[in-house]
Amino acid sequence: MALATAGPSGDPHAAPVFFAANLEDPQPEKLRRGDLRQFFFSDPLSQHAQDVIHNPSAAAVIYPEVNGWQEIRGMQLRGHVHRLSADVEWQAGWICYQGKFPFVSGLQSIIARNDFYVFLPHWIRLVDNRLGFGYKQEWKLE
User: Fold this and answer.
1) pLDDT of amino acid 28
2) Both ends of the chain: CA-CA distance in Å?
3) This prediction's pTM
4) What distance in Å separates the CA atoms of residue 8 and residue 6, rounded to the nearest whole number?
């Protein structure tokens, strides 16, 4: 996932992050704010971590590498990022993250030096040229 943030001066910044998503209900038409959570670790001194202290608004894109325009697909998202504290949400995120990246259980010293964050989208756009050039579908999560 590429995460885009803005610093206190408004300067934009984008960074790739490894993420694991937790989706409560996979039916897009039933999605509500908070149903889709994307967890990621980051150095607390990284630009995007510093940015969300001042402005939690963020945007993200998720897409596979493709070779032709007919294969372009992915998601564009807008939402908010916040750092997780060691609580129930942190534990739920950790279980989700280990499910996607089992190797992290052996990286405790690295994990300890980083903070755990969650991106909570409130707007999602699906783009999928496999369904027709410029195909888009959008959801606003209430």
Assistant:
1) 63
2) 23
3) 0.90
4) 7
Residue 135's Cβ-side half-sphere holds a number of Cα atoms within 13 Å equal to 13
Q: Is 72 helix (H, G, I), strand (E, B) or coil?
A: coil
Average pLDDT by stretches of 10, the chain with 142 residues: 95 96 71 85 96 97 96 96 91 94 91 94 95 94 83
Six token digits for residue 77: 């998202």
SS3 per residue for 87-108: CHHHHHHHHHHHHHCHHHHHCH
Domain covering 2-140 assigned CATH 2.40.30.170 in the classification:
no
Strand partners, 38: 21, 119
- Mapped onto helix, strand or coil, the DSSP state of residue 50 is helix
- CA distances 131 to 29, 72, 118, Å, are 18, 10, 31
Q: How many beta carbons lie within 10 A of that of residue 77, not counting itself? A: 24
